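Consider the tokenized backbone below.
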């Protein structure tokens, strides 16, 4: 990509940042809203399932050293028992039956609209972390999506922003901690929660306090209520995918663990890549201006020297 094209891309993303901040400042919107694009904007749980299915295959993101770190699980005995509780009891007797009833009660379009709304409920989490990660164009897109979908998209039930080319960008506090050098720590499975690492557990707690519902009720209560509704809806949306994972995995615990850790590592790599591209774009955009300033400085320093030389020449001639 040449400099001109690169600068045009940066300019478009910069305009999205300005649009996001200006719209929010003018409208003073404080309640979250919406969005979702199923083809290239999967939920984290959907990406987990895809990663689980592929977890027994060689991955281009693995290296000889990183593969040993990917399944760092010194608490496996505790984790396996908790996983059994979550899967064999909570999911089997609670979540899965509720998801089947939910699926029969609501058509797919309604479930899809609910998924849009659940996605946008987490907008503050993504926006704050994108800013902390210095991914400013992504943060601008996040705000622009939020304003557009909250207004035109009827409180987030529809997703006009995706049709206008405003893509989804994921971010959470676990990623932010990783980008600031915090190590993942051991793999961790807790009751009622998704797979975690110790670092992601702290990040999950931080994200819970940024949940808008926690501004009106306790963070734990808000998180439990939102997560329950979200998980049931997401489970109903991906019933076949879950069943396929259960049927094709010989060791479901190891498959879930490896799939989750692989997905997290890729998500962090993508966030770092996006951050680096942002700063490269900014540098490329400012480089011509910097060169112009240097040229003007050189010309301004040369001009007095030439003037001095001419003055000295005139004095010699006068003598």
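A designed sequence for it:
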């Amino acid at each position: 990509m040449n400099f001109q094209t690169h600068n045009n891309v940066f300019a478009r993303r910069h305009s999205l940042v300005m649009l996001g901040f200006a719209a929010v400042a003018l409208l003073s919107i404080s309640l979250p809203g919406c969005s979702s694009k199923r083809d290239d904007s999967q939920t984290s749980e959907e990406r987990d399932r895809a990663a689980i299915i592929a977890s027994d295959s060689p991955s281009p993101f693995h290296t000889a050293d990183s593969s040993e770190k990917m399944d760092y699980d010194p608490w496996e005995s505790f984790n396996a028992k908790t996983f059994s509780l979550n899967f064999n009891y909570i999911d089997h007797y609670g979540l899965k039956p509720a998801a089947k009833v939910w699926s029969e009660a609501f058509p797919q379009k309604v479930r899809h609209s609910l998924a849009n709304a659940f996605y946008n409920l987490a907008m503050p989490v993504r926006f704050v972390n994108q800013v902390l990660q210095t991914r400013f164009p992504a943060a601008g897109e996040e705000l622009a999506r939020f304003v557009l979908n909250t207004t035109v998209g009827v409180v987030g039930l529809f997703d006009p922003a995706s049709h206008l080319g405003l893509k989804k960008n994921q971010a959470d506090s676990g990623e932010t901690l990783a980008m600031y050098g915090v190590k993942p720590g051991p793999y961790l499975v807790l009751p009622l929660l998704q797979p975690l690492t110790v670092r992601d557990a702290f990040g999950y707690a931080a994200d819970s306090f940024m949940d808008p519902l926690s501004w009106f009720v306790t963070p734990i209560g808000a998180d439990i209520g939102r997560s329950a509704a979200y998980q049931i809806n997401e489970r109903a949306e991906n019933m076949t995918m879950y069943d396929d994972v259960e049927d094709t995995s010989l060791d479901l615990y190891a498959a879930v663990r490896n799939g989750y850790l692989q997905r997290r590592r890729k998500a962090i790599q993508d966030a770092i890549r996006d951050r680096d591209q942002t700063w490269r774009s900014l540098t490329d955009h400012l480089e011509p201006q910097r060169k112009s300033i240097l040229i003007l400085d050189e010309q301004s320093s040369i001009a007095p020297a030439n003037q001095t030389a001419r003055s000295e020449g005139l004095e010699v001639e006068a003598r």
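DSSP finds 13 helices and two strands in the chain.
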